[in-house]
Amino acid sequence: MTSMQMLTKSGFAEQTINKSRFYAAASYCETEREVGAFLRALAAQHQNAHHLAYAFRIKTLDGLGNHMIVPRFSDAGEPSGTAGKPILQMLEGRDLINVAVGVIRYYGGINLGTGGLARAYSGTAKIALDAANCHDFVEMQQISLTVSYKQVDELTRALAKHNGQVLEKTFDEAAHFVVKLPVTQAQKLVQQFARRII
Question: Bridge-partner residues for 96, per DSSP?
Answer without folding.
Answer: 5
